[in-house]
Design a protein that fits this description.
With 201 residues, this protein is α/β, with parallel strands linked by helices. The protein contains eight helices and seven strands, in the order E-E-E-E-H-H-E-H-H-H-H-E-H-E-H. The protein has a seven-stranded mixed beta sheet, with helices on both faces. It is globular.
């Protein structure tokens, strides 16, 4: 397997002090991290989030997507439970990279939806690869997860890669006037499981 563990450290956050574990993927050259809280190696299903990097949403507070809102909500839920893991994968823009994401945003400014924009640039709607997750989870002693996601493709990909998913927990937050059409496209074209009931104001 191309993914190898490198080192761990403490990471204080507004939601508590997590342990941050660094991994390197020699096949892609990318670096990924896992944040854990509490004892995750007990054999009991662990509350977990597989989160793909979104610089615009996670760090620049973009309201065009729900990524930053989901990241913060996942950390909050893990903190409240006192135990969990967040895998942060460097797969910006559903795998197309930051600069191509900006190009896609430009097309969206002109009326394309998020899927159409990727396809006009010559990419599939979603190029993310979750095959590395099982190795990272195994290293941490996590045998089974309760996955915070709305994405059935992610569930399927994780299970095919050997990750045991005990349950799916909806993670529907951050809806606003700037991302309504984006969320509708994720539901309509990418099959994300969303209901109005789960959105917080």
């Amino acid at each position: 397997m191309s993914v190898r563990y490198v080192a761990s450290s403490q990471l204080p956050t507004p939601w508590g002090t997590f342990t941050m574990h660094g991994f390197e993927d020699s096949a892609s050259g990318k670096e990924h991290v896992v944040l854990t809280l509490g004892a995750v190696d007990s054999g009991e299903p662990v509350l977990a989030r597989i989160h793909s990097e979104c610089l615009t949403g996670d760090a620049l507070f973009s309201m065009r997507c729900d990524c930053g809102f989901q990241l913060q909500e996942a950390l909050k839920r893990i903190s409240e439970e006192g135990r969990g893991a967040l895998l942060y994968l460097r797969q910006e823009g559903r795998g197309i990279g930051l600069i191509n994401k900006i190009r896609a945003y430009h097309l969206q400014d002109g009326g394309a939806d998020t899927v159409e924009a990727n396809e006009r640039l010559g990419f599939a709607a979603d190029l993310r690869d979750y095959s590395i997750c099982n190795t990272m989870l195994e290293h941490l002693g996590i045998a089974e997860v309760r996955l915070m996601t709305n994405n059935p493709r992610k569930l399927d990909a994780l299970q095919k890669s050997g990750v045991k998913v005990a349950a799916r927990e909806p993670l529907q937050v951050g809806k606003n006037s700037h991302n309504e059409s984006y969320l509708a496209t994720k539901a309509g074209k990418l099959g994300h499981m969303m209901t109005e009931h789960h959105f917080k104001d």
